[in-house]
Specification:
It contains twelve helices and 16 strands. The protein has 462 residues and is of the alpha/beta class. Helix 10 links the parallel strand 14 (354-360) and strand 15 (383-386). Helix 1 (2-29) packs antiparallel against helix 12 and helix 2 runs antiparallel to helix 8. The longest helix has 28 residues, at 2-29. The two termini are 42 Å apart. The relative contact order is 0.17. The structure holds zinc ion. Zinc ion (ZN) binds at residues 274, 286-287, 320, 348.
């Protein structure tokens, strides 16, 4: 009796180990994610919301999901903003009148254009909004504010360094306009020194249109150059020209595929990434990798012979980068339809070697998750921490469910993020496939064991 019990226990433990073995083996020997990413990156390219490429990506991924023989595949309509970059931006530093030194810039997403002939003005360099406020209108009026706070290099979690800088990009123009600045140049959010400007979203808040000032990112090398030249000559002039514009919203879609659960069809497990990307590169890391890994989760479940008990959905969200409209729409519809999302997992941190996950979970669920940790050891997956999940799954958080984000190695991610070198050749096939397998393994465990009840519903630990 005891022996049988023991044997049963062994069998069950071995079963999970065996299943994970099958998942990883299938991912590494019969994967599809890399081929999908090749198509998304090289045949379609950058997929800015509202663009023709974004629409092509919707049609392509929908037809690939249909090929997989899922129970349901559909498009969820959502209106998205359409911002266009226009002609390539141009900028130079003029230390001595008539001597122009070209520098690399790009408009930030959502920015207004410069006047048709460009904008030329003196520059005020600051590192913080406090410094800006201390200088005040007299020092800033009519000038270009240059935000030059670098990413903190000694933080091991590069997303923390990103979080420490991104306010300059997102709110720099809004802040500088309070003091009547003419424009804003922001140091690219990039840990290394190179020549690529990195775009990303910025906002004017509710500022009247006529008060909005143009805002651009400058490469880290050129930020260093500008700062050094300013130290020598505080009166130098900076010129930039950009012709970007915000057009009316257009119709787009989230792409959704589902394997309906065999026992608990009304409990949903979601895997996803965002289908849109910035336009300078082809969006291979951000977030083509997350898109194809999420698609691959459903494919690997099928190929590994796992029939989910709960309904398993892949959601390819539209417009994460400059509006989050797709995620907002999905969560609204899920709420309206009373769909109980017990677990949602996002991959939106690059296609690099997976290290683990970060979780938004209550204590009891987190304890269950930690009990699975040893299953991942053979695959060198060790990072299990509480923390954020992902922008697209965030709106699905409830008092009782669990959200997670795949956490790949992030040391090189910000070399590529939102820049012209976020391209397919910088994604490694094996690393991408290991990420897909790691996601599938976690989805398998949540499908098998479900979530556990939290003793206290509030406050939710995250
Ligand atoms: Zn992203």
């Amino acid at each position: 009796m005891f022996f049988l019990f023991y044997l049963g226990f062994e069998l069950q433990a071995q079963t999970d180990e065996k299943v994970l073995e099958t998942i990883y083996k299938t991912a590494l020997t019969n994967g599809q994610s890399y081929q999908w990413l090749d198509h998304l990156s090289n045949k379609i390219g950058g997929r800015l919301s509202g663009s023709e490429n974004a629409e092509l990506a919707v049609q392509y991924t929908k037809s690939e999901l249909e090929e997989m023989g899922l129970d349901k595949v559909w498009l969820q309509p959502v209106m998205v903003p359409k911002w266009v970059r226009g002609l390539q931006e141009y900028a130079y530093i003029e230390s001595v009148p008539g001597e122009q030194m070209a520098v690399n810039i790009c408009a930030l997403g959502g920015s207004v254009a410069t006047p048709g002939n460009g904008l030329k003005a003196a520059v005020v360099e600051v590192k913080t909004f406090e410094e800006l406020a201390a200088l005040g209108t007299e020092a800033i009026q009519g000038k270009i504010v240059f935000f030059n706070r670098p990413m903190q290099p000694d933080l091991i979690q590069t997303f923390d360094s990103y979080g420490g800088c991104v306010d300059q990009r997102y709110a720099g123009a809004m802040e500088a306009a309070k003091y009547k600045a003419a424009g804003v140049i922001v140091r690219s959010v990039n840990l290394r020194l190179d020549d690529y400007p990195h775009t990303g979203s910025m906002s004017y808040g509710d500022m009247p249109v006529e008060q909005r000032i143009p805002s651009a990112a400058i490469s880290t090398n050129d930020a260093e150059k500008l700062s050094a030249l300013l130290a020598d000559n505080p009166n130098l002039q900076f010129y930039f020209k950009q012709s970007c514009q915000q057009l009316p919203d257009v119709q787009s879609y989230n792409v959704i595929g589902e394997i309906t659960g065999s026992e608990f069809p009304n409990e949903f497990i979601l895997v996803g990434g965002h289908l849109d990307s910035w336009d300078l590169g082809d969006g291979a890391h951000d977030d083509g990798a997350g898109v194809v890994q999420s698609m691959e989760v459903l494919r690997l479940m099928k190929l590994s012979g796992i029939k989910p008990k709960r309904s398993l959905r892949v959601v390819l969200f539209m417009n994460e980068e400059n509006g989050l409209r797709g995620a907002t729409k999905y969560a609204e519809e899920a709420k309206r339809n009373g769909e109980n999302h017990i677990f949602a997992l996002e991959s939106d941190a690059g296609g690099f070697t997976p290290r683990g996950f970060s979780f938004q979970a209550g204590d009891n669920n987190y304890a269950q998750i930690l009990s699975w940790q040893s299953l991942f050891k053979p695959y060198l997956i060790h990072y299990f921490e509480k923390g954020g999940s992902g922008a697209d799954v965030g709106p699905l958080k409830s008092d009782t469910n669990v959200l997670a984000g795949l956490r790949p190695d992030s040391q090189r991610y910000f070399d590529h993020h939102h820049a012209a070198i976020d391209t397919f050749e910088h994604v490694n096939k094996r690393e991408l496939e290991l990420g897909a397998a790691t996601m599938t393994a976690l989805v398998y465990l949540f499908d098998k064991y479900g979530i556990v009840k939290e003793e206290r519903l509030k406050p939710v630990m995250d």
